[in-house]
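Give me the fold.
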Amino acid sequence: MNYFEIKEALSSVEEIQNDEFEILKFITSLTNNVSTHSQGRDLVIRSLANLEVFSEMGQQLLKNLIRVTGLHPYSAKFLPKGDFEDRLAFEMHSSLIADQVVTLHSEQSKVLNLLLTGANVVFSAPTSVGKSLIVDAFVSQKKPRKAVIIVPTIALIDETRRRFLRKFGDVCKVITHPTQYAQPDLCNLYVLTQERVLERDDLDDVEFFVLDEFYKLNLPSGKKDRDRAVDLNLAFSRLARTGAQFYLLGPNIQSINGIASYDYCFIQTDFATVAVDIKNFNLATNGSARKEKLVALCANFADPTIIYCQSPNKAAEVANYLIEELSLSDAPDTKDAANWIAKEYHEEWVVHQAIKKGIGVHHGGVPRSLQQYFIQLFNDRKIQFLVCTSTIIEGVNTVAKNVVIYDRRQSNNLVDHFTYKNISGRAGRMNEYFVGNVYVLEEAPAEKEYSVDIVVEDQPDGTPLSLLLDLPEERLSSKSKEKIYQVQSDSILSMETIRENRHVSPEVQNWIAGVISEDLFLYEDILNWKGVPKQKQLEALAVLIFDYLSESTLRYYGIFSGRQLAWHLNELRSDKTLSAYVRTCIANKGHDEEVSDVIERALRFIRNVVCHRLPKEIKVIEVIQAEVLTRHKVECGDYSKYCEQLKHLFIPTNLFALDEYGIPLQTAARLEEFIGQPESLDKALSLVSKMTVSKLDFMPFEVDLIRSLQSLMLDQAEFD
């Protein structure tokens, strides 16, 4: 017998009953051999999936194998009949988290013990191995006065915040927003993206920080996400330089380079708590074979299933195809959500049509509150299918038996082995789905090792100028200093301006400064506005942004001139609500455009451009015009108020922030009538938590979301 034969036998009740002794004998031999220990552990997990089929003697042998393979969380069911050694192993790997005793597996215990000794740890392990639980155990035992958890997305901020509030809400303050501050007499847990880390000035005394998904420190070869990787390098360096202890965690990474100046332990493991069966179909990209196979698979699935697609457009196509071919009935648990989406957006939007039938759609164009809601429905098994893009692989916890990899691309690029492994790691869940299934419809990518190179310390050739510009001179290498001196000598702008706009190349900044200087008579009157711009002022600003900063990006969203950009911004301001703006976009759609496509483009434009990119680019113009106009003895403009309005979609700042807590922006805007404009997010949360919510004022879906937030806030002490 070999590993593959035993693996096959463990899926058959009859074979287990007939060959139990031989099966367990072979598994024992694998676990006792270092080179085959991982295979032995995999077979132990598969055996646990059919535990009731084994005889009492067989179950006792499996109990011992659980201990040998370090799968201690699975020991709980054997404790009533366990001997002293079983109980001792269980207790030695148990940790008190809040008021609950949680059992850790051997790798979790190893990492936690290192952290408790004060060591810096870099931990690379497969997806869903429980890397974040180590953070909870550390916080529970050490209770640091100030700790920072850096996560890549707002969705992960929300998930981490909910987890912390549930476990530590009575002893810790969880800080996620710029208007929130530490409480001196408590354990303060900052949960921030790298951008928010760099914006804060109160992190010099951090004791401990975590960097989740640390593979994102790698600088991508293309421009996409490069700025975020630069900021992540800077955030890591800024916190590490304080002397704070760090814990870097991420999946499937074989090596890390660039932090030799720090003492740390690198732990890389293939330890897994679930087994995974991968089925490759090698179907052609073109044609109908993939669609037909997808429908055939989904028709036979009874358990939660994630379907990975390369892009939002492909996700919409797949969702529509499933609706048409699976003959699904309306889902009773999603009726209120579907009604709300139809009212606030449109009944033809694929997200509405899908959730009405029990299919969640999860990608960057879906509003954040709906993404969170769909994940919750999926994990609560109220919907069976979740059609998603790469947004699902960035750490958000899901509970799925099956993963279907429909595309082997991410956007327009082929999925590499690293991303493929991360997607595959979503299949299976400890104590729920012992064996997960991954169905790869196209050809799987070739296996390849993945390393992380952190450039902020060593500053090798090719280190982005935007990173170097943020470092003090004493931190720069001799080559980096030469680059900075060259920029300084070539620039008509001051280094203060160049640094403040570091994510825009010095060449572009100088072009913009030259344009303003050469036509000063025009620009001195049209750029020196303060507060909110008039039409001509907005158009001039929009033209500069379109021509010099964002033409290719804006064309992607169907905007082909600065004046057209100004029109969209005016519509957003004059329409007053997000829903009204979407309806305006639908009313102005082309004859051959689908309503669903128009909605998704509008929502991506709002999220990626209006609320994120555009305020930064307006700030670039503001800083440049301030230097140029001041140099010519002309009063300069101040665009800060308008930037804030755009960033928060003309909704009061601390109501807009409720979007991160699962409250849709439309609902958040309506809350102003009941709680006014709170001076801080903490105040807004406190006021919402005390509200009496009526279905006379809000739709049933909104009532459920507000009450869910109120329930969450019961775990958090009030900080007014």
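The chain has five domains: 3-92, 97-268, 275-440, 491-647, 653-713.
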